[in-house]
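[job 0412] stage=fold_complex status=start
inputs:
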Amino acid sequence: MGKVKFDVSVSLDGYSAGPNPRFEEPLGDGGERLHEWMLETAGFKEAHGGGEGGATGPDDDIVREAFENTGAYLMGRQMFGGGEGDWDESWKGWWGDDPPFHAPVFVLTHHPREPLPMDGGTTFHFVTEGMQSALEQARAAAGDKDVQIAGGANVVQQYLKAGAVDEFQVHVAPVCLGGGVALFESLGNDEVKLEVVRVVESPLVTHLKYRVVK
Amino acid sequence: MGKVKFDVSVSLDGYSAGPNPRFEEPLGDGGERLHEWMLETAGFKEAHGGGEGGATGPDDDIVREAFENTGAYLMGRQMFGGGEGDWDESWKGWWGDDPPFHAPVFVLTHHPREPLPMDGGTTFHFVTEGMQSALEQARAAAGDKDVQIAGGANVVQQYLKAGAVDEFQVHVAPVCLGGGVALFESLGNDEVKLEVVRVVESPLVTHLKYRVVK
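[job 0412] stage=fold_complex status=done
writing structure:
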């Protein structure tokens, strides 16, 4: 069985999105700066159907590794498509016609909806039976590969607190956002025991990988 | 002329001290866990008059480097001795008779006081003329060596905002404190431009060094 993991870009001051996240700017003010390290990598461009010519190197290796080992994704309804989850059935989320997941994606929501197949192998499944059920469905879909908790921060925190996460990476961008969504906000003192597993550096970001000690 | 720098241990969720810092526990609840990586190093033990037998390796190299290149320290009154700064003249701070600095230490305060020489080469100088004056005095005392802003977080933030800091290290411990003193709390979005200079990993902590782009 694969691992349950997450991969989140954060600012040096600990935010996974900037202040004032909103429909037009889901990453909040300045939040796009957290992801600059990723946008030019060949692996990211390929996943987004962006053709040839991206950058190779350590950042690209990290992106490829994450995509290749992941068999299914979990995400909150906000990350699928914003709003309160009572989308019109015509709303296909904000990931475009060919989302970068190329795998089943399980969306936590209170609003039942038929599965939504997209181009390129991504199918969004809408799960109304809660976190545990969503995780079980994602594990079954992932087979031997990993389940990636795509976000947002509140979903990541809930699975961490539930003891469901095996390992995770934070990609620390050399920026301060001064506010926004704190990735680990609701985690209490000493609630999760961690070990450093790997550190990869590049000029644009530092990739820190941790194992959750159970 | 040397650099102006700081070196602060932080939790993965961005705190340089835990919740509820107080006189008996200046690092707050769980805050001592941020410094565990340092306590067993040979360099730290030597600086604290702790004799022989400490650990060598990357963490020790980092500690030694910081001590060796520093010619003077700056700190807030809280870090010297807690309280409101109107100490009885007999109060010599909480660093013991032989503080680990072994160099001049400039303490920002509103209460004038004669310099306080300690064992081992540390002298505390109490500066009432403000941040800029304290920095100038520390620079003069440091000569060709660096000035280290020892803390606390509010002092670090003020010097960062004033554009006075050349580089800094954060030592990221694999713990979450769930609250406390956020090292970069008052830094606004994009207020400071940073470049990653160096990453050193060890099992206990990750040492991230940044340069402030001016």
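[job 0412] summary: Chain B is about 20% helix and 30% strand.
[job 0412] exit 0
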